[in-house]
Specification:
Helix content: 40-55%
Largest sheet: 2 strands, antiparallel
CATH topology: Lysozyme
Number of strands: 4
Number of helices: 8
EC number: 3.2.1.17
CATH class: Mainly Alpha
Distance between the termini: 42 Å
GO molecular function, one term: lysozyme activity
Keywords: Antimicrobial, Bacteriolytic enzyme, Glycosidase, Host cytoplasm, Hydrolase
Family: Belongs to the glycosyl hydrolase 24 family.
Catalytic activity: Hydrolysis of (1->4)-beta-linkages between N-acetylmuramic acid and N-acetyl-D-glucosamine residues in a peptidoglycan and between N-acetyl-D-glucosamine residues in chitodextrins
CATH architecture: Orthogonal Bundle
Strand content: under 5%
């Protein structure tokens, strides 16, 4: 596989170059994708010692995202095709592990390797967003994982009341906020309700650690 397009895509998403640690982590994720294995951990992407640095999502967060995103529209040959948003019946079209954006629409088909590589790239980007939003606020790994899953699905980490309550140290209040984000297209969706409950449970686990 030519890895340059993947690295170029992640570089554009991050709007910067890579450290040696990040190159090694992305290489490992691509290797796993080529073996047909699920992306299991990006813990080594940034190796945080200072909470103000960009953090990496852990294995529990990745498992939660994969559980709820799934690989919908899996074809007999192992590839996946795009599907419409369940709330709108159309945009945004989604493919693989919940990927959306330019170039994804009716008729889009990806290999499993492409889906896994996109997940690895997106997790780096969404973890960076969450790191910027929470700054140096005390945050356990489980809390961080729950926040990344929430942001991966909603894109709302920068504006959510949930984030403000977390920054204030009101962990119980932040946990309660997850349940409010269970609508799409103006309708309550059972899948979103289950996902928010799972994220809240993971966040609560980290709050009591």
């Amino acid at each position: 596989m030519d890895r340059k397009p993947i690295f170029d895509t992640v570089r554009r998403l991050l709007k910067r170059g890579f450290s040696r640690r990040e190159v090694a982590a992305l290489d490992a994720a691509i290797d796993a994708a080529q073996r047909g294995a699920a992306v299991s951990s990006l813990d080594s992407v940034t190796g945080v010692t200072d909470p103000r640095e960009t953090r990496a999502i852990g294995t529990h967060g990745i498992a939660l995202i994969q559980q709820f995103e799934g690989l919908a529209r899996l074809r007999p040959d192992g590839s996946v095709e795009a599907y419409p948003d369940p709330g709108t019946g159309g945009e945004p079209w989604t493919i693989g592990w919940g990927a959306t954006g330019r170039g994804i629409g009716p008729g889009t088909v990806w290999s499993r390797s492409e889906a896994d590589a996109r997940l690895a790239a997106d997790l780096v980007r969404y973890a960076a967003d969450v790191s910027r939003a929470i700054g140096d606020a005390p945050t356990s790994q489980a809390q961080f994982d729950a926040l990344v899953s929430f942001h991966y699905n909603t894109g709302a980490i920068a504006r959510a009341t949930l984030t403000r309550k977390h920054l204030a140290g009101d962990f119980a209040g932040a946990e309660a906020e997850f349940a409010r984000w269970n609508r799409a297209g103006g309708r309550v969706l059972a899948g979103l309700t289950r996902r928010r409950a799972a994220e809240a449970a993971l966040y609560r686990e980290g709050s009591s650690a």
